[in-house]
Amino acid sequence: GAEPTGEGRTVAVAHPNIALVKYWGKRDERLVLPFTDSLSLTLDVFPTTTSVRLAPAAGSDTVVMDGAPARGEQLRRVTAFLDLVRERAGRRERAVVDTRNTVPVGAGLASSASGFAALALAAAAVYGLPTEPRALSRLARRGSGSAARSVFGGFVVWHAGPVDALDPDAASYAEPLGDAYIDAALVAVVLEAGPKAVSSREAMRRTVATSPRFPEWVAASRADLTRMRAALRAGDLETVGGIAERNAIGMHAAMEAASPPVRYLTDASATALGTVHELRREGVGAWATMDAGPNVKVLCAAADAERVAARMATVPGARVVVARRGPGATLRTEG
Ligand code: 2P0
């Protein structure tokens, strides 16, 4: 484990990631095991900074999120995660967690990915669990699936692991792609910063249980992953972008076919998508991806980022943020 910093606090920083081949649907809810492998890019914007310190005299955990006490489902998820860490570490002390996001929580900009990656690292360090990246990725996965990927920087693949694995928990982890030869940017088009109506957890559950399009989504996703890995190796941004855009549309089609339907995309999202298509018609390499919210992220070459951002800023109500390849989760040494 790492040395605690400051007043017995350990501080970790992690960044969000955006999937180019999406994770949508769990085959095991308790262990957070997905149906499919997914592939993402960790960003250099919107970090989450989380400090954890032990509170041996306390009877319960204290969780502060962006300066206010966490409650309800958020508090329950953090406490459940800390219970798992304590169980593995054979420890009983409660903790004080203070977490600060720089992105609106619950708005489809992956705050749970950066959040649980940072919490996993800080908590593992404080309670004396291994902080080696693969173990950390597996641990972060239990907090939130996409957090398994934010442990690493750059392009990352999260393995679902074989369905018949003897130890499925050990077989599902993320790792960085050492052979992705693309200098990409992601232009985040923030259309709405409010919390979402349906959590991605619930939306996934509903899609798996009721969408007749879920099986075709799983099959398409497998093919997308194989082809995308080859395109990343070949440095072929056009193929990467085309796969990413179709993969995202396929995920949204699967959830819109659920009952009741899950619809995250709005008229503003459609307008932003139209602008991306316009850019392509003009010969600019730009491809859209959308997650569990109305915001649109535009993949392009790093060299085109400012041009793409300027055009996306013409979408009414849009706030645009340019992101590039970001780092994995790190412990911050203070002072
Ligand atoms: C992804 N998303 O691959 C997909 C695409 C949103 C759309 O992972 O239930 O917060 O905590 O495992 O990771 C968002 O869901 O879900 C997500 P849980 P998570 O990025």
From TrEMBL:
Stretches assigned to the Mvd1 C-terminal domain: 189-313
Protein name, entry field: diphosphomevalonate decarboxylase
Enzyme class, first EC level, given as a word: lyase
One matching Pfam family: MDD_C
A single GO molecular function term of this UniProt record: diphosphomevalonate decarboxylase activity
Compositionally biased intervals (Low complexity): 1-8
Keyword Hydrolase attached: no
Family (UniProt): Belongs to the diphosphomevalonate decarboxylase family.
Keyword set, alphabetical order: ATP-binding, Lipid biosynthesis, Lipid metabolism, Lyase, Nucleotide-binding
Domain Diphosphomevalonate decarboxylase-like N-terminal: 14-163
Gene source species: Streptomyces millisiae
Entry's EC annotation: 4.1.1.33
